[in-house]
Amino acid sequence: MRYYWLTICVVLLVTCTICAACYGSGSGAASKAARIDFGGAEIVELDNGVILVPVKLFADWLCAAAAGSEPSNVTAEGGSQRGGLSMEVGGKTHTLNLSVGTKTATFDARQVRLDAAPIFLDNKIYAPLRSLSTLMGAKTSGTSQERTVTVTLNAVSGRVRLNSERIPQKYDYRVYKAVMARQETLGDRARKAGRLEEAENRYSTAIKVAKRIVSETLQKNPLVLLHRAQSSYLSGDYQGATSALQSYNNVTKTRSKGQLQHDKKCMAIGQQTERIRQRLEQKRESCLPAADI
Q1: Is the pTM of this model over 0.85?
Q2: β-pairing, 34-35 with 156-161?
Q3: Could you report the per-residue pLDDT of 182-198, keeping only the tens digit for each?
Q4: Which end of the chain has the least Cβ crowding within 10 Å, N or C?
């Protein structure tokens, strides 16, 4: 009788060991999600944490995950302001139509609201990662703070790794503002931890982005002429003030009310960003080694 119970215990122990090994190996395989290939395209992160990805390339991955094979059934059309996708998954065709600058899109003939408005960058239309995943029934885990987001569809997982170092060549204020703020935050953390060289590099990147924002918002802004006229007048340069004021009047008389409002908004952004740039310069200088006397 004793041997009988001993045999049962051994069998149970072996069975549990095998099950644990199988479960462990299965969960390990699931945790090693492959990185989603975007063909070297930028992964955009807005200042509110929303992640934007190239719509066509992400749809390719979603359809491959849903069908369990390489995608050959995703077609795209559109231009720099509008885009449309047709995706055939499991014998069913899905259509997605979206417009740059608006959060409202159409999916399978019904209106949906995206987490953020799509943008056009490097000849690609970008849309929110979580919104696209939800529309196709995929689940996402992780946040922008963790720097990695995992997308899972039909037991197939893919990773989206955020890279805050690269600055997109084409200017988009929302993207540039997010990069500038993130680099300053990372610089502050590095400086607090005593990693001064890393902090200096972070601040330098943020300064570079800030200069681009200032250039884009103020370089051709007619309100700069008005401010120049005011400064010249206050400093006693009446001839310079008159010249700047005349140039301002010549430029603005052909501009619409909407354009003037846009100029005013850009002026405020440029001035605010210039103050941020000056603050970043001070932080960067605090990380530099003291000069020999």
Answers
A1: no
A2: parallel
A3: 889 888 988 998 888 88
A4: C
